Prior knowledge:
The chain is an alpha+beta fold. It has helices spanning 3-12, 16-22, 42-54, 65-79, 125-133, 185-198, 286-296, 337-341, 345-350, and strands at residues 86-92, 97-105, 116-120, 145-149, 156-161, 204-212, 216-217, 220-221, 226-235, 238-243, 254-260, 263-270, 272-276, 305-321, 324-335, 355-359, 365-368.
Amino acid sequence: MKNEYKKIYADIKPSDEIFKSVIAQKDMPSQKAKYFKPILSVACLFAAVAVLFSIRNFSNDSFDENKIVNLIVAYETKNSVDSVSHVKQEIVGDAKTVYIDADVIIESDIKNMKAYTAIPSFDFYEEFEEILLGKDALFRGNADRTSISFPVGGGINFGVSSEKNKSEIQNQISENHAAGCRISYLEAKQIADSFVERFSVDGFIFQNGKIADDPTYGSGYSATGFYVFNYLQYQDGFPLAVATDKIESGVASELSVYVNDEGIIYVRFFSLELNEKPAESKVMSVYDAIELIENNVDNLWLSEYAPIVEIRLEYLLDRINDGIYELVPCWHFCIDQTEIFNLGISEARKNDTNDLCVNAITGEMFRVADRYPVYKTKDGIISTWNG
């Protein structure tokens, strides 16, 4: 092999393992072939053509042109997770099966992700009180009671109530109205969005809205049904979405706004102040995360049958020591509770519906709170209160 091509080959060949397990698929498909489906970008095509022209003088004992091109394609695909949109694969262990049929959600450029130390934010009582109860208040009723609590681990829950006794909830006016409410889902969302615009903490983006069936919330209650709008804190274009079981609040960050005809009746809030840590390594691809699951499936807490219906690249919050938090990129594998529950009560009890998160830098695995099921109306509104 000529010297000028040795560097090219070294640059595009990260390891013999990639060559043997990925390139060899062309002649003899392997297990990994189920999810290694090269998707060529325009840049990769140009690169392949350029290398083809440049390697015409390779000696006979070197790799032929087709293998070199296949190597480029496999390497580019392996390291370009942005090209992945869906993964379908069955991982069969000795005692359990993980069936993946999942959209892969990557909301920004993976190269932007970093690791952080994190500190919970405090001291928002006066701001909440002014927005909800002060001038131009977003709570429009007559507040008989104001409730406030500071959950362990940080954050604040702030609510108001104008009823001494819980009233009987009336029927819904329509599918897009909470029970007993004249205000619609969209009108309620405008009120919630107004709160977020006036609130001084940046980086929270709307995620979903729910129509609540249960009149109780926090330490208060509503005379009618109500709406809940959830916003997530973002960093580097990715959500701070999940937390390990060592986090008292149960969430990485949260802003939930509860609305009925009287306006905003309750707010749950938990946010993080972040400091970047020196980069330890690059973020692994979704394929690498799946391979880790495949290699460790029988040692994981996963149940006999684990259907994965969504994979998201997110930030995960973990507590290293008392008062010291770390925020790291993770691949979040969401298990479909609905499918498990449809198996029947006896089968459902055998299955752990907690999701699986893989630290996308170290490969450490965590059990986190489940994200599914979701219940949606024909308009996409989550209509069944589940928390």
